[in-house]
Amino acid sequence: MDGNFKRGLISNCIALPILFGFGYAIQLQHLAAAALAVNWFVFVVHALPRNSERFFDATGSLTYLIMIGSAVSTSQGCVSRRFVSASMVVVWCIRLGSYLLGRIMKDGKDGRFDEFRKSWLRFLGVWTIQAVWCFFVASPALVMITSEACHTSVSILDCVGWALWLVSFCIEVVADRQKDRFRRDPANKGQFITTGLWAYSRHPNYFGEICMWIGICISGSSCFHGLEWLSWVSPLTTWILLMKVSGVSLLEKSGQERWGKDPKYQHYMDHTPCIVPALRKPPAYPTDGYVPIVG
């Protein structure tokens, strides 16, 4: 049996029980099935026949929207909590999804998928895993929208969670825009960003992303009951994805390859926190005698 086929078989056999086991625990099996159906549908009609991952991120966004829409359409109870929870996910999803779709349409392909596309079953496993993480990440909002235990009045925890979400969303948006503006400036070609929020954290956008889901979980903590508390897996899943799978590890490996010999880059890496921003701006690199190395 081919090695890639084996990996695909293992990834699907592990991901599917996790998806439906978690769905059963929080009584949202139908939404877990919806997440899987969306990803498998796009895989069958586009990704497999074209051997393409172009709409992978867009499918993730579509998965969130369909889960939230399905949950809202069948829920009753506290209108304020349901409306705010759904709105936070939809706003975040549309903004990030459009940003990622625009990037892949510009770049044409995502090199991360080259190895996975060698086997249809391993490639399918990537889409199955996306269904799992979308369901895990969205779970606190889905619980708040559907659970009878959450059909109560808005509490102080809701307000705290919503405020944290709003601040975190603004951090992510500002960080992404600062980086886009930096990249569009021809004077910065081949350079790395160390200004704005990026002076305080190497990945301020990821800090905002993680804290948004913490905010949603804090809001949900006002009404979670029993196994619904498992929804706190949402920010943990986000942290794992960004730190260990497709975010920090890949970006910093690429950065080391491009600028690893640049003392200014090493100074930035040594003095700037990875995720949680520093309260004070780290010391600037001494420029006396510095000759930039363009990677």
UniProtKB/TrEMBL annotation:
Entry protein name: Steroid 5-alpha reductase C-terminal domain-containing protein
Record carries keyword Transmembrane helix: yes
Signal sequence residues: none
Record-annotated membrane-spanning stretches: 9-26, 32-48, 55-72, 84-102, 123-143, 155-175
InterPro entries named in the record: UstE-like
Keywords for this protein: Membrane, Transmembrane, Transmembrane helix
Lineage: Eukaryota, Sar, Alveolata, Dinophyceae, Prorocentrales
Superkingdom of the source species: Eukaryota
